[in-house]
Amino acid sequence: MKPIVANGILTGSIALLIVAQLLIKSQVMKAGPVPVEIRSALVHFGGLLLNPWIVLAYALVLLSAIAWMAALSQLDLSYAYPLLN
Predict the structure, then answer these.
(1) What is the pLDDT of residues 68-85, one digit of tens each?
(2) Domain-wise residue ranges, the chain
């Protein structure tokens, strides 16, 4: 794999992670604050975990991890990791 392709995969990995975080944040904000009662809190989190947008976000995180591994197979960690921050 050429370095330009590895950098493209690395960029894609980071972009997928950003989109996933934004999806999760939007759905958590839409769901509102976590209730104080334990039973209500469990129902709240259960609803979030079954939310299709959050399921999509976790699928994007999985794809991001796969792309990250592909990029790391060609790039040094000392180069790739700082780009996450």
Answers:
(1) 999 999 999 999 988 877
(2) 3-84
